[in-house]
Design brief:
Layout lengths: L5 H10 L2 H4 L2 H6 L1 H31 L1 E5 L6 H6 L9 E5 L10 H13 L2 E5 L6 H8 L4 E4 L4 H10 L2 H10 L3 E5 L1 H4 L34 E3 L7 H7 L3 H7 E3 L4 E6 L2 E6 L7
Parallel strand pairs: 1-5, 2-3, 2-4, 4-5, 6-7
Antiparallel strand pairs: 1-8, 8-9
Length: 273
């Protein structure tokens, strides 16, 4: 780190007041004046460089895998690992599944994780404080957010300030894996959560603010089938806005975000309706 000794510069001026009585132009033409200007410029450049570098580090550290069907993308998840699976600690956030009675999809993901060899801790963020949730997640390598009721999940996230927590963890190099609801909440909004406009999933929670965590600059539509195309068009009539603001996933696809790079992975072409 560069160290600028401004104290020396200031003490010199106090000991030599004649410099201050010089014509301003003459002062800046003097070796001492030129040196001072250069020091200020170097300090400014160093300050700007540090801001840019810190911003770049944050972007480089950000890794998310947003899936439609979770551990069905097992091979892609394994590719993200920088050490053996048995050395990976994974927080399995199952909060979104709590309103459901049929939890077979949760058990499927857990069974595959165990087969892969992850060290798994099931975590429920509902009813916990920001400090409690952070302590549960801070030493985990991967934050796996299971699917379920998107409105219920987002409501629980807001109560514990999860957005602040996950942004901090992403900067530390943790990996966020979302499944369905866990992917949708990562977007700009969760308006795609209610596919058919019935409002059933939001009937109890009654969320009015559908703003997501905004970890990615788009919305996510999961579990796409061809018959959903017309529903998507009704929800987002402008084709330009759909192309820019919506990512559509089948159960065999995922969005991989690494820094500023955003890629569609899995089987099939990008879906545009």
């Amino acid at each position: 780190m560069i160290n600028f000794d401004f104290n020396f510069y200031w003490e010199f001026l106090l000991r030599n007041p004649e410099f201050l009585r010089q014509n301003v132009l003459e002062f800046f033409r003097s070796p001492f004046g030129i040196g001072g200007v250069l020091l200020v410029l170097l300090a400014l450049i160093y300050y700007i460089f540090n801001i840019i570098w810190e911003s770049a580090k944050k972007d480089m550290a950000k890794t998310l895998l947003l899936t439609s069907a979770g551990m069905q993308m097992k091979d892609e998840i394994i590719k993200l690992l920088q050490k053996p699976a048995e050395d990976i600690s994974l927080a399995f956030i199952m909060t979104a599944s709590k309103p459901f009675q049929d939890l077979n999809y949760v058990r499927v993901d857990l069974d595959i994780m165990k087969d892969v060899g992850f060290n798994i801790e099931e975590v429920d963020i509902d009813g916990k404080t920001e400090e409690q949730v952070y302590k549960l997640l801070e030493f985990k390598d991967m934050i796996f957010v299971e699917g379920g009721n998107t409105f219920y999940l987002l409501n629980a996230m807001r109560k514990c300030n999860f957005e602040k927590i996950i942004r901090k963890l992403l900067k530390l190099g943790k990996v966020y894996v979302g499944v369905s609801a866990g992917s949708i909440v990562a977007g700009k909004t969760i308006q795609t959560a209610d596919k058919f406009g019935t409002g059933t999933d939001n009937a109890t929670i009654k969320l009015k603010n559908l703003k997501g965590l905004n970890l990615v600059p788009f919305d996510i539509f999961c579990h796409y089938q061809p018959e959903y195309a017309e529903i998507i068009k009704q929800k987002m009539p402008d084709p330009k806005k759909r192309a820019k603001n919506l990512k559509i996933l089948t159960d065999e696809q995922a969005i991989l975000v690494q820094g500023k790079e955003i890629d569609l992975i899995g089987k099939g072409e990008q879906i545009i309706v």
